Amino acid sequence: MRVHSDLYIGGQWVAATGTDVIEVVNPSTEEVFASVPAASKDDADAAVAAARGAFESWSQLSIDERTDYVEKIAAAMAERSEEIAALVSAEQGMPIANARRVQAGLPTMVMQSYVGIGREYAAAEPERVGNSMVVEEPIGVCTFITPWNYPLHQIVGKVAPALVAGCTMIVKPSSETPLNAFVLAEIMHEVGVPAGVFNLVTGAGRTVGEALCVHPDVDMISITGSTEAGARIAELGAPTVKRICQELGGKSANVILESADISKAVPAGITGMMLNCGQTCTALTRMIVPRSRQDEVVDLAVEALNSLSMGDPTSDEHFLGPMVSASQKTTVQDYIRTGIDEGARLVAGGPDDPEGYDVGFYVQPTIFADVDNSMVIAQEEIFGPVLCIIPADSDDDAIAIANDSPFGLSGAVWADTDDNAIAAARRLRTGQVMVNGGRFNPLAPFGGYKASGNGRELGRAGLDEFLETKAIQLPA
Ligand code: NAD
Questions:
Q1: In the Cβ-directed half-sphere of 229, how many Cα atoms lie within 13 Å?
Q2: What is the CATH number of domain 253-443?
Q3: Within its chain, how far is the Cα of 422 from the centroid?
Q4: Residue 281 annotated in active site
Q5: What's the pLDDT tens digit per position in 283-317?
Q6: Domain named Aldehyde dehydrogenase: which ranges (predicted)?
Q7: pTM of this prediction?
Q8: Where are the domains of the chain?
Q9: 167-225 pLDDT, tens per residue?
Q10: How far is the CA of 42 from the centre of ligand 1 (A)?
Q11: Which residue among 281, 381, 457, 465 is the active-site one?
């Protein structure tokens, strides 16, 4: 049993003020294998005070000095990457081979990316506009609220640029997956990040999370999470006029145009969508296909799904693991029942527990065909391994269906040529689009349109979120 009884506040491990704890469950074995403090409002206040106290001196360091810390943090993360992969796999359920790449490798890569971005930012001259010099300065104290699906990546996507910018911060990770954040705090301590710059507080969103969002000494809140939580946090921050950055839900479309090679598009779409069992905000959960080719698409999709093995996340062999929690499993299975009730055609999977899985929050990866975009399963984010195949009558119809969503996070287009795919990509109301299998790029701006959020993370755009702009008017 791994017991964390302390929080990381003001550069020290300090006991939480209360005795309540959050138990961390391994979703594959259903065993409680760790616990962390359920912090109180007093703990939140102490963390904000520490971050406020550290801001002046941290923000006055040179950008290069701050970037030096980021470089050391990235190196320490790389050294501990096997431990991080195993830990996230145990708390979150992603099979270890993918966890090594995505849950440990990706956040390390993002931390490392801010070394180059920091060096470039340090070298840039202030812009001149007429008689003004325009300078950028850190926004101040930041609260970071993060989810469980790519837990360390989502923390690092905020922490790394905030450090470069000169901000100080309090991280409140998801209660399902808090353990990786303790490793990050240990690393901050080891590399000597000054006291109060990085603080870690664990606990429930509704209590300690809200305390961190209403606090008048917090200048900015960045949340990655559900649209409901993002909207609530914007309300909490409004009275004190905080900057709010929201990375929220999605229901992204994989638009396969008439001219596309479906033998490439469909298997790639299945593998991408099923990564992390569909618990990915950018998952392409609506596959929009030419109506005349739907049967071929279904055959290819089922074949691709059958090639993905499910099982024990500690084994190198598997692609699919359990859902993160019992409640997530129930939610997903309820949505599958809703799809059947709505009249969608079930072509793989179903709402029952998969055979042979009495223990663990496993669900059957599921594909529906003949889905109408107005159905609940096509409109709401399921956050599980459930694909909706939606037939379209023309390419224009496919794009209209793709845009008929409250969300606008991601998308994909497949066409005969990249130019044709790009032309369609420009018509999608989403923050990113992959064309003809283009890969995720951790240096490109990441964020959503519509109910998927506000603001951008990653790359230089991610740094800009943490900056205030000041115009200094010079005498003639
Ligand atoms: P969630 O909204 O339940 O929780 C996210 C975080 O918000 C947690 O730390 C939680 O404790 C906290 N929280 C919840 N209510 C709060 C409140 N009132 N005040 C303060 N904090 C509060 O989301 P989740 O279930 O952890 O994650 C899944 C969701 O996250 C999905 O909707 C998914 O699409 C979204 N997500 C978005 C992105 C993105 O970058 N756009 C990335 C990953 C996940």
A1: 22
A2: 3.40.309.10
A3: 25
A4: yes
A5: 999 999 999 999 999 999 999 999 999 999 999 99
A6: 13-472
A7: 0.97
A8: 2-248+453-473, 253-443
A9: 999 999 999 999 999 999 999 999 999 999 999 999 999 999 999 999 999 999 999 99
A10: 23
A11: 281
